């Protein structure tokens, strides 16, 4: 008998099928009709950038301010995981991996190109060399600084928190749990994950496409290849994706960590080479001044919409707004990857590391390469580098021609870009598979490799057909709705953190303070019992009523007039001692109800209840302080509690400094 072999897969059809249909439809349309699709998408993108740019500005501003608030707030000590959990990776490996996933290829592509393009832009070119150079550095810092990492950090934080603290799947749907509750497992959750998967795929595909073009350009300049055509690009993609697939199938612990650690070491070595063999004193001074300039202009840059500067508006749309949209569109990918490697960190440690360390490194990197290029352009090349500002694919390698050991360093740059390519593709495969499987713990290797093959095939398909720019526009358009989703994530995170803090800081009930071991059986019966209205009526009559009447009589014996106030029904009873010059002393008990959640009602190991409600006696006070449940007090314990509050009252009114709080004008009863 022959047995048919079933192909094992952990893919979730509700997420994977709609995503693949949409991805393939967009890619095919972009490749078959690149001109038309690009035109339509550009119209939509330009409309958003021109008319809704304020959404991006405000959203990113809120992201930054919210993370800074969390870092310095009482929530900063909360761990991303159990309270006794510890990080899975060393600090250096953690920083290397999040950095490689977040900024890798982009840093190599724009480190010379962006400062040079700002420097040579007609908006800044009309000013002096000094102002042009300063502005070029300032806006490069702005685009690659805290704002970019705040976007990544916020998504990564929300994912880490809900996955490791709430034990939910490592998925974007989990970030909306406080609002959607169990509906995250249904269509709403699938819709969010489909959006995240498509956005991740588009972002990685376009970035890898640009990375291939830069690698090909570098190899051409070095004479390794004779042209920058599609065949060479296909060979590069085949080799690098094969390495990425091998890395991904070995697991993130091995592949990405090893490559990221290696690459960050090589990157630091390259930066030090340019620093010490370039205009060293100029670079150190410009970095120092640029950092101060960035800090001084931080809020002005953050809120600046250039609305009063018509000439700079196109630049604002094509740089700042485009960058915010680009980082937002990449945040599902980078956020998921950062969350995967951040278990066990505290919120404060997470935010400080994600916001500050990569930002400082980006500033150092951009200062060394960008300012070196500007200095060489004005002092050595006679404007040759600024003339190449519109050729970013080759600009890095043309810049290296002015430094010693040009070929060696150029090969090193190509190697770095290749490793960044591999780590981006590697982590991208992991993230996309995680989204498509609802964070399945185990997936077959062929399935993980399949995402890499799909990335490679569609990236080459679009490169050959000229549809990569259309896909980039599509990626930027998706950033608008996702920025709204991230804002909703903030609301969910605030709600969850507040509940979290109260849960772990919840103290024992006030009624447990006078307990001894004598009545423990009675206490147990009271704790597990859910009281009905009749139970509380009995408590109000037999315990609270008798206690207050007995205490009132004792007050009268001691020369103090004590009044008893109570409702017609036993819904409240209070003892009141009246004064002329100060507030009256009031201690009362009233009947209250509370609703229990559905899961509590269905729990077999808890007592049954009527209509999902429980009744309890709540103590309240004349000065509107927070009351508490007193149903576990005996009569004598309740009398002792009233006397405790009366002793506090007498101590307060006996001090002159409390006069403003004890005026008789504030006398009122709280029921």
Automatic annotation (TrEMBL):
Record's bilayer topology term: Multi-pass membrane protein
Superkingdom of the source species: Bacteria
UniProt cross-references to Pfam families, sorted A to Z: BCCT (PF02028)
Keyword Ribonucleoprotein tagged: no
Keywords (A to Z) from UniProt: Cell membrane, Membrane, Transmembrane, Transmembrane helix, Transport
Entry-linked PROSITE patterns: BCCT (PS01303)
Transmembrane segments: 12-33, 53-70, 91-112, 141-164, 191-213, 233-252, 264-284, 321-339, 351-376, 408-436, 448-468, 474-494
Location in the cell: Cell membrane
Main location: membrane
NCBIfam families: bcct (TIGR00842)
Entry's family note: Belongs to the BCCT transporter (TC 2.A.15) family.
Protein name as it appears in the record: BCCT family transporter
Organism for this UniProt entry: Sphingobacterium tenebrionis
């Amino acid at each position: 008998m022959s047995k048919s072999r079933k192909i094992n897969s952990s893919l979730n059809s509700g997420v994977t099928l709609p995503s693949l249909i949409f991805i393939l439809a967009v890619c095919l349309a972009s490749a078959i009709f690149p001109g038309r699709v690009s035109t339509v998408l550009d119209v939509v993108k330009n409309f958003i950038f021109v008319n809704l740019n304020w959404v991006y500005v405000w959203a990113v501003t809120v992201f930054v301010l919210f993370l800074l608030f969390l870092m310095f707030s009482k929530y900063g000590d909360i761990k991303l995981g159990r309270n006794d959990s510890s990080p899975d990776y060393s600090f250096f490996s953690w920083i290397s991996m999040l950095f490689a996933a977040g900024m890798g290829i982009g840093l190599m592509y724009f480190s010379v190109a962006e400062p040079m393009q700002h420097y040579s832009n007609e908006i800044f070119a009309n000013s002096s060399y000094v102002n042009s150079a300063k502005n070029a550095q300032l806006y490069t810092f702005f685009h690659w600084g805290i704002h970019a990492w705040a976007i990544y950090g916020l998504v990564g934080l929300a994912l880490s928190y809900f996955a490791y603290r709430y034990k939910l799947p490592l998925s974007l749907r989990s970030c909306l749990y406080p609002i959607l509750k169990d509906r995250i497992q249904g269509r709403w959750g699938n819709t969010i994950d489909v959006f995240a998967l498509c956005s991740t795929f588009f972002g990685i595909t376009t970035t890898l496409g640009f990375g291939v073009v830069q690698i090909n350009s570098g190899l051409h300049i070095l004479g390794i290849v004779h042209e920058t055509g599609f065949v060479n690009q296909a060979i590069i993609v085949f080799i690098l994706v094969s390495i990425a697939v091998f890395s991904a199938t070995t697991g993130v612990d091995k592949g990405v960590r090893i490559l990221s650690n290696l690459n960050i070491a090589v990157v630091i070595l390259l930066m030090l080479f340019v620093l010490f063999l370039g205009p060293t004193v100029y670079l150190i001074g410009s970095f120092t001044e640029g950092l101060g300039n960035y800090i001084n202009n931080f809020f002005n840059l953050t809120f600046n919409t250039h609305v009063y500067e018509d000439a700079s508006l196109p630049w604002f749309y094509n740089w700042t707004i485009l960058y915010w949209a680009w980082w937002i569109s990449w945040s599902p990918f980078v956020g998921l990857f950062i969350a995967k490697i951040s278990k066990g960190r505290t919120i404060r440690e997470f935010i400080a590391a994600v916001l500050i360390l990569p930002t400082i490194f980006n500033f150092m990197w951009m200062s060394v390469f960008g300012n070196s290029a500007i200095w060489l352009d004005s002092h050595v090349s006679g404007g040759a580098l600024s003339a190449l500002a519109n050729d970013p694919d080759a600009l890095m390698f043309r810049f290296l021609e002015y430094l010693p050991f040009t070929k060696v360093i150029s090969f090193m740059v190509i190697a770095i870009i290749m490793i960044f390519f591999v780590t981006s593709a590697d982590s991208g495969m992991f993230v996309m598979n995680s989204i498509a499987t609802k964070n399945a713990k185990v997936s077959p290797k062929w399935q993980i490799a399949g995402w890499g093959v799909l990335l490679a095939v569609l990236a080459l398909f679009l490169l050959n057909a000229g549809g990569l720019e259309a896909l980039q526009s599509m990626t930027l358009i998706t950033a608008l709705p996702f920025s709204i989703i991230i804002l909703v994530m903030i609301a969910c995170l605030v709600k969850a953190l507040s509940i979290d803090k109260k849960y772990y800081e919840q103290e024992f009930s006030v009624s447990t303070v006078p307990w001894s071991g004598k009545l423990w059986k009675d206490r147990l019966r009271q704790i597990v019992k859910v009281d009905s209205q009749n139970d509380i009526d009995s408590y109000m009559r037999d315990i609270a009523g008798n206690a207050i009447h007995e205490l009132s009589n004792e007050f009268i014996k001691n020369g103090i007039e004590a009044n008893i106030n109570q409702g017609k029904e036993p819904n409240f009873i209070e003892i009141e001692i009246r004064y002329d010059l100060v507030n009256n002393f009031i201690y009362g008990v009233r009947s209250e109800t509370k609703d229990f959640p559905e899961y509590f009602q269905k729990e077999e190991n808890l007592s049954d209840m009527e209509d999902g409600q429980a009744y309890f006696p709540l103590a309240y006070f004349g000065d509107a302080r927070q009351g508490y449940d007193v149903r576990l007090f005996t009569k004598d314990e309740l009398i002792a509690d009233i006397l405790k509050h009366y002793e506090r009252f007498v101590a307060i009114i006996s001090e002159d400094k409390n006069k403003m709080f004890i005026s008789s004008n504030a006398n009122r009863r709280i029921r």
